[in-house]
Structures are given as C-alpha cells and as structure tokens.
Amino acid sequence: MKNLHNKHKFIVYILALVFFLQFSLFLDKEYLFAQVMQGSQYEIESDSINIGGVYSTSTNYSLVDTFGQVSSGLSSSTNYELNAGFLQDDSSSLAVVPPSDIVLSPSLPGMTGGTSDGSGVVSVSTDNFAGYSITINSSSNPSMTTTGASIADYVPSSGSADFDMDVPSGNSALGFTSEGVDIVQKFKDNGSICNTGSSDNTDACWTGLSTTLQSVSMSSSPNYPLSTDTTLKFRVKIGSGSVQKSGEYTATTTITILPN
Hints:
The structure is a single chain. The chain has 260 residues and is an all-beta fold. The protein has 2 domains: 14-28 and 94-259, Immunoglobulin-like, CATH 2.60.40; 53-91, no CATH class. 0% of the residues lie in helices and 39% in strands. It has strands spanning 14-25, 37-38, 43-44, 55-57, 62-64, 73-76, 81-84, 94-97, 102-103, 108-109, 114-126, 132-138, 144-146, 149-153, 172-179, 214-219, 228-238, 247-249, 252-259. Strand 4 and strand 5 (62-64) form a beta hairpin. The termini are far apart.
C-alpha cells in the first residue's frame, strides 16, 4: 500500500496456506463382500452347511470349529477366487472415511509471522481380529512448497514430539500431531512431556512430516460395527523476521490404512 504523501511503498507478504491430503488405502487382495443375512442390528457375511460346531474360549485361546462340511476347499479361475468352507473364510472387512483437502487458516504475513492451523479426520471401522494401523508420509522433502520457496518440516527438540510447537524468530516450520483413542505412544503425554503417560491433551505433541512412513494410530482389536476417529492436525508457524516468500504453499501426503 502507499502512504498519504505517496513517497513510500510497503509490501505485505500474504501466505495462502493450502494443505492437500492424498488418501490411499492398500489391501493385499480385493474382495467383494455380500451379506447372506442381515437386519437392523447385524450382518452375517458368510455361513456354511454342516452338522455341528462350537465356539470355545479360555484365558489363552479361542476356538471356532465345525463338522461335516460339504464342497469345501479353494478354487480359482481367471476371473474369480473362491474360498469355500468354514476354514477357508478368513477374510475381513475394512471401511474408511478419509479427510477432505485441508486448508490452513488464517493466511499469514511473511515478515511479522504467526500461526496457521487446519485438521482432518480419518474414520476407520474393521472386523479384523488384529485391528488396524494408520501411517502418514509426505511426497517431498520439505513437505510444504511453493514456486521458488519452501517451509521446513518441524524438527522436535526432544527427538520424538514436542508438547508445544516452538519456532524461533527468523524461522518457519510445518508440524503435525495426531489425536484420538488409538493414537500411538509418541502422541500421548503426561501433561507436559510427550511419548510418556497416557493423556491426549488438545494441540499437544508436535512433530514433522517426512517421506518415511510414520505411525499415527494403531489398534490391536476390531471395532466393527462402530468406527474410530483419528484427527490429524497441521500447523504452520512463522517466526517474526523470517521474511517468508509470499505465495500459495501446498503439501501432499499419503495416509495409509492397513489391517494388522
């Protein structure tokens, strides 16, 4: 803008921080699921014709058996694969609701600095007995870039995650954290230190993105028919005096959800 005497020109660097998330779901095989019976409160994905069978448990094991099956076994062709019979039906389902593209706000002045935030939710439901896991990685290093400039990925001083995201004057950084009931230990805290305790304080335990896979949530048991949410929060902090180049900065990440 110009002053009243038109003698000086001041340039304000405005950063429109747009964070794009690319979602990927990987499974070993593709399965077509159909329910043989269902109601308002249940779904039975498969059944078998037999003359007996029981469900047994103890402290150290669980056993499901059957007796007298007809036409069981494995068969396949170019267009199908059939696992016929009780023992062959070892498939599990995994349903995911991914986050939309995330836009960080507010836009930031590149000279005086500030903080810009955004978040997205990953919702997972599975009947896999061993649960599921969520990982994240970025497509580039550094993750957030614009033409001719970039914002560094946050490096925690503790080596795992910092309770508060601290960016010194003259620097800028992109960090993220994970919140939810299934988050991994790195994102848990004791109220002041991360990677210890069992608390999940809001907006705590920040680390940086990487092209290497990082675990954010994990469960060792099924949650179907319910679902579990994991919230991924992203933050850009620009320290005063950093003189960050103006522009629209983007980062692309891949979120991977797998059955354990």
